[in-house]
Amino acid sequence: MSAAKSSTVLVIGAGGVSSVCVHKMAFNPDIFPEIHLASRTKSKCDAIAASVKERCGRDIATYEIDAEEVPAMVNLIRKTGAGLVVNLALPYQDLPIMDACLEASVDYLDTANYEPKDEAKFEYHWQWAYQDRYKDAGLMALLGSGFDPGVTSVFTMWLKKHKLKTIRQLDILDCNGGDHGQHFATNFNPEINIREVTAPARHWENGEWVETPAMSNKVAFDFEAVGQKNMYLMYHEELESLAKFVPELERARFWMTFGDQYITHLTVLQNVGMTSIEPVRYQGKDIIPLQFLAAVLPKPETLGETTKGNTNIGVIATGEALDGSGEKTFYIKNICSHEAAYEETGNQAVSYTTGVPAMIGAAMVVRGDWQGEGVFNIEQLDPDPFMAMLNAHGLPWTVEEMAGPVGF
Ligand code: NDP
């Protein structure tokens, strides 16, 4: 990495996550002196730019782009003079955007791993395959700089650096205690969210993946600032990178809370075939039921105004204490208020808790706190500067010692 890289950023995508990230970048002109925003629908970029202008007076240049068109992306990157592309579109666009960054010779960052459109299979191997090309080009690709993946991975590595010599057991607990007042809505892109939730659960145990049916393993947990909620065992993409970069892990699991109303609606939609990604012939055209469903559900970026309550996302880790005092368990977490997130950026806390870490990851790259050549998961980088920025930029965290390992 040369110090002469441009600190200009180009953000791709104009949904809730992008909106938060662009606002937070704009609030930090010393780190992000120039911000460009491009997406499939330019009017959405313009709406974000107008909100930024109103809130802090800064101008954001906006463009229309289909990020799957590599030559057009390369032209846009060159036109903006960006040194880093922040991909906040959908996982389907990860590979073409990585290709465009290589060709235009700029760094890359995202918050979700690549997923082919025709198969609900989110895995890192497609992006890890870019390692040599990024390394040879002297470029950095930073993968998974959202909350989960992202902050949950950084939390784990911070515990490993400051509290635990080894981590034996890891549980990631993701609770959205917010109420948006809708019968059924997802807090981030509905298509991606439903593909994730309806996939079989998978966790890491004794060196292998253990698969169980979706939503079949439920535990009640009392979340601070939310109360008691049912959380369900799920597969989530950071488990793959954590199992790789924390090789001593005996068990790693991911849990997410869902209300009974959400589960009831999802079960009905699944039973009638509306969550399928197999094409269905309708009036002479092939349509994907899940894509049609996503089109009729509320857009995540419209939920901000009505959502009340908190998110509480954290990591419980058990392992051998660094100070030699035996086995210890720590719980590290962030609590985020939907109302406060909305007041600051016009978006609810699920977008906020993803958009802020995307901004922080971008800051790590443009400031040079994190430097490297190749493809990096966030677990591979020093957690300390990232953790400091979480505290300073709206996602403060706490860590506490627990009496013993989790009982579930
Ligand atoms: P949205 O659906 O609200 O926004 C996605 C944006 O990408 C839309 O503006 C969409 O355009 C744009 N887009 C889609 N296809 C293209 C394309 N071919 N070219 C250019 N732009 C395109 O999603 P969210 O903001 O909720 O989520 C954004 C990303 O963040 C997703 O990848 C999601 O998986 C990830 N995420 C990560 C989390 C984490 O903690 N790591 C948590 C939550 C989300 P249009 O407006 O025209 O539809």
Which keywords apply here?
alpha/beta, 2 domains, 26% strand, 18 strands, Rossmann fold, 7-stranded parallel beta sheet, 408 residues, Dihydrodipicolinate Reductase, domain 2, single chain, binds NADPH dihydro-nicotinamide-adenine-dinucleotide phosphate, 9-stranded mixed beta sheet
Work out the helix count. 14
First-last Cα distance: 45 Å
**CATH architecture annotation name of the largest domain:** 2-Layer Sandwich
* Molecules bound to protein: NADPH dihydro-nicotinamide-adenine-dinucleotide phosphate
Q: What is the global morphology? A: globular
Q: What is the percentage of strand-forming residues? A: 25-35%
Task: Pick out the low-confidence regions.
Answer: none
CATH class of the largest domain: Alpha Beta
The CATH homologous superfamily name of the largest domain equals Dihydrodipicolinate Reductase, domain 2
Structural class call reads: alpha/beta
Strand count, sense and barrel status of the largest sheet are: 9 strands, mixed
According to CATH, the fold-level topology of the largest domain is: Dihydrodipicolinate Reductase, domain 2
- Supply the number of structural domains: 2
Rg measurement, Å: 20 Å
Overall residue-averaged pLDDT value: 95
Q: How much helicity do the residues have?
A: 25-40%
List how many beta strands DSSP finds.
Answer: 18
Topology:
Elements: E1 9-12, H1 16-26, E2 35-39, H2 42-56, E3 61-64, H3 70-80, E4 84-87, H4 94-104, E5 107-110, H5 125-128, H6 131-137, E6 140-143, H7 151-162, E7 164-176, H8 190-198, E8 201-205, E9 208-212, E10 218-223, E11 227-234, H9 238-245, E12 251-257, H10 260-271, E13 280-282, E14 285-287, H11 289-296, E15 310-321, E16 327-337, H12 338-345, H13 349-367, E17 374-377, H14 383-392, E18 397-402
Helix pairs in contact: 1-2, 1-13, 3-4, 7-14, 8-11, 13-14
The site of NADPH dihydro-nicotinamide-adenine-dinucleotide phosphate has 33 residues, from α1.
InterPro entries: NAD(P)-bd_dom_sf, Sacchrp_dh-like_C, Sacchrp_dh_NADP-bd
Keywords: Oxidoreductase
Organism: Erythrobacter ramosus
